[in-house]
């Protein structure tokens, strides 16, 4: 059985994030009797429920190398980005996604060039002292949230500074903060990126 759904389905592929409307399967049965065959039909309604798709993180997993006296900036080829297909839904666009950036033993920062307008669109907290956030300052961990567009705008330029030599790891986690979907499909999903950094 194949059902064309508003132009989203080809013979090989379904549009995987389609949901929210009721489709149906129509069954026609005939007994092929002679000389008067009997036929009947039935319609089975199908409601396609939304599910909470996982957010995604892209970025380097390493190993990256740096000097203990330096600072590693994640930009251009090493930029870290987050996304979530659910936020393409207009009803989800203004809802909140949350990102945590931390390291095993080093410290992390957001880009110092972030504007006041960019920072005003997200909520930032730093769980360890100093607890007052300043763009470009280093912290053990930075937790920030906002709508997807606002969060994406501050990801470029994340910085890492080591506390010594050896192997460290930058850890980035994203949580969609939302029970998106219906019925048993209500879950809050997260994704993780771990970048290995060798410090000499």
Descriptive overview:
- The chain has 200 residues and is mostly beta strands.
- Helices cover 6% and strands 36% of the residues.
- The chain has a six-stranded mixed β-sheet with strand order 4-13-12-7-10-9. Strands 5-11-8 form a three-stranded antiparallel β-sheet, with no helix packed on it. A two-stranded antiparallel sheet has the order 1-2.
- Strand 1 and strand 2 form a beta hairpin.
- The radius of gyration is 25 Å and the shape is elongated.
Q: How far is the N terminus from the C terminus?
A: 61 Å
Number of beta strands: 13
Per the principal axes of the C-alpha atoms, what is the gross shape? Answer: elongated
Output the strand order for the largest sheet. 4-13-12-7-10-9
Q: Determine the strand fraction and express it as a percent band.
A: 35-45%
- Structure class: mainly beta
Descriptive keywords:
disordered N terminus; elongated; 200 residues; three-stranded antiparallel beta sheet; 2 helices; six-stranded mixed beta sheet; 13 strands; mainly beta
Give the helices and strands, then pairings.
Elements: E1 22-30, E2 39-47, E3 56-58, E4 64-66, E5 72-74, E6 81-83, E7 97-103, E8 107-109, H1 116-120, E9 123-125, E10 141-146, H2 148-153, E11 158-161, E12 166-175, E13 190-199
Parallel strand pairs: 4-13
Antiparallel strand pairs: 1-2, 3-6, 5-11, 7-10, 7-12, 8-11, 9-10, 12-13
């Amino acid at each position: 059985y194949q059902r064309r759904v508003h132009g989203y389905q080809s013979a090989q592929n379904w549009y995987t994030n389609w949901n929210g409307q009721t489709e149906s399967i129509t069954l026609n049965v005939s007994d092929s009797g002679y000389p008067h065959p009997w036929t009947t039909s039935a319609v089975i309604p199908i409601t396609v429920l939304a599910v909470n798709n996982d957010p995604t993180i892209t970025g380097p997993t390493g190993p990256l190398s740096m000097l203990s006296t330096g600072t590693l900036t994640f930009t251009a080829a090493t930029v870290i980005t987050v996304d979530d297909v659910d936020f393409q839904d207009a009803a989800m666009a203004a809802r909140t996604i949350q990102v945590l950036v931390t390291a095993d033993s080093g410290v992390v920062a957001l880009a110092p060039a972030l504007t006041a307008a960019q920072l005003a669109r997200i909520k930032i907290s730093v769980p360890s002292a100093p607890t007052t956030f300043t763009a470009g300052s280093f912290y053990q961990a930075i937790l920030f949230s906002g709508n997807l567009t606002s969060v994406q705008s501050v990801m470029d330029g994340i910085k890492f500074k080591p506390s010594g030599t050896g192997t460290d790891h930058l850890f980035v986690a994203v949580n969609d903060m939302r029970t998106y979907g219906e019925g048993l499909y209500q879950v809050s999903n997260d994704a993780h990126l771990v970048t290995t950094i060798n410090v000499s």
